Amino acid sequence: MTEHPTTPAGKPTSYSRVTLSRIMTAVDVNLYGTVHGGVLMKFVDDVAGAAAARHSGGTAVTASIDEIVFSEPVRVGDLVHAHAQVNWTGNTSMEVGVKVVAERWDSAEDEPVRVATAYLVFVGVDVGGAPRAVRPVLTETAEDERRYKEAEIRRAHRLAKRRAIQAHRAS
Ligand SMILES: CC(C)(COP(=O)(O)OP(=O)(O)OC[C@H]1O[C@@H](n2cnc3c(N)ncnc32)[C@H](O)[C@@H]1OP(=O)(O)O)[C@@H](O)C(=O)NCCC(=O)NCCS
């Protein structure tokens, strides 16, 4: 287990792990008859928010959706599970990774299919909405450690992009 530097006592990655499940219905579809991407985005934000709140022990707001990839369509009747965990923590922010899988309604014995992957940044906030310190996440497995390091890469890219755009606008 690796302890990353910050002040309050940390929590292991498994502490924040949470799964939401639901069956997709006819109200969830787009014009093509498959599930609307926005429905999955809301589902992803909900499960990520639950993981962030659990890890940080209080209110956390979505600061950004870093990436969301829809890899396979979801159909009406599919049982969809969204698995989330806190991958990385900064001072007040957390990266939450979400994996969404579908059990096909017409082939329930098959392995669930990965339908989406997302990375979101949440910020712990106090009652006034100001950022508050969040406890560090403690990686438990080699996979957690890989996710932690990849979250750092995404953060570095995000910050570099912001700096480059600011420099461009100032030029
Ligand atoms: C998220 C929010 C609390 C950040 O407040 P802020 O005063 O800009 O915060 P700071 O600049 O001090 O940054 C605080 C942390 O948030 C991170 N952060 C801020 N904006 C971010 C962004 N767009 N993307 C990723 N991280 C961000 C910073 O990197 C910092 O992380 P760290 O403390 O771990 O280093 C504020 O922008 C907010 O309330 N936004 C609205 C959130 C909301 O309502 N979401 C629901 C969608 S309707």
From TrEMBL:
Residues 14-128 form the HotDog ACOT-type domain. InterPro entries: Cytosol_ACT (IPR040170), HOTDOG_ACOT (IPR033120), HotDog_dom_sf (IPR029069), Thioestr_dom (IPR006683). Keywords: Hydrolase. Transmembrane segments: none annotated. Pfam families: 4HBT. GO terms for molecular function: long-chain fatty acyl-CoA hydrolase activity. GO terms for biological process: acyl-CoA metabolic process. One of its GO terms (cellular component) is cytosol. Signal peptide: none annotated. Belongs to the acyl coenzyme A hydrolase family. This is Acyl-CoA thioesterase. It comes from Micromonospora wenchangensis.
